[in-house]
TrEMBL record:
One of its GO terms (molecular function) is ATP binding. This is Protein kinase domain-containing protein. Gene3D superfamilies: Transferase(Phosphotransferase) domain 1. Pfam families: Pkinase. Residues 1-148 form the Protein kinase domain. SMART domains: S_TKc.
């Protein structure tokens, strides 16, 4: 583990480096039984998706001795959209339109798979220097029949 990169209601996220490959990954650490169940559900949901603007899962590990679970995710070098705006000010019109279109396409994809994210907010959108985005935090997403 290299450093802590985020803390949420149910978990914390740490930046780590895989020993075998040297690849950077994000590890979402969940404690408490219900949080661990949510993390497993999030892993299963993410595993069923294949879209470049959705964070990709790598592995799910449970540690019963520590009563923790570890959701290993791809690492996306950037920051949350709210922190980006806080640090750099507003986005210009073209950047905003591009992000809105990308997010709209992402949500259309999710709905075509019968999945509702249910927590779309700037804190759950990562953005990098190239203004590419990734949707994260699927722990309260819901699966069902799509009505879209």
């Amino acid at each position: 583990v290299v450093k802590n990169i985020g803390t949420g209601t149910y978990s914390s996220v740490k930046l780590a480096t895989e020993k075998d490959t040297g690849r950077k990954v994000a590890i979402k650490v969940s404690r408490r039984t219900n949080s661990r169940e949510m993390a497993k559900k999030e892993y299963d949901t993410l595993k069923s998706l294949d879209q470049k603007t959705i964070i990709q899962p790598i592995e799910f590990i449970e540690n019963d001795l520590k009563d923790e679970s570890y959701l290993v995710l791809e690492y996306f070098a950037g920051m949350t959209l709210d922190k980006y705006i806080e640090e750099y000010g507003h986005l210009n019109e073209d950047e905003t339109a591009n992000i809105a279109q990308t997010l709209s396409n992402c949500l259309s994809y999710l709905h075509s798979k019968g999945i509702a994210h249910r927590d779309i907010k700037p804190q759950n959108i990562l953005i990098n220097d190239d203004k590419e985005i990734k949707l994260i935090d699927f722990n309260i997403s819901k699966e069902g029949k799509s009505k879209c």
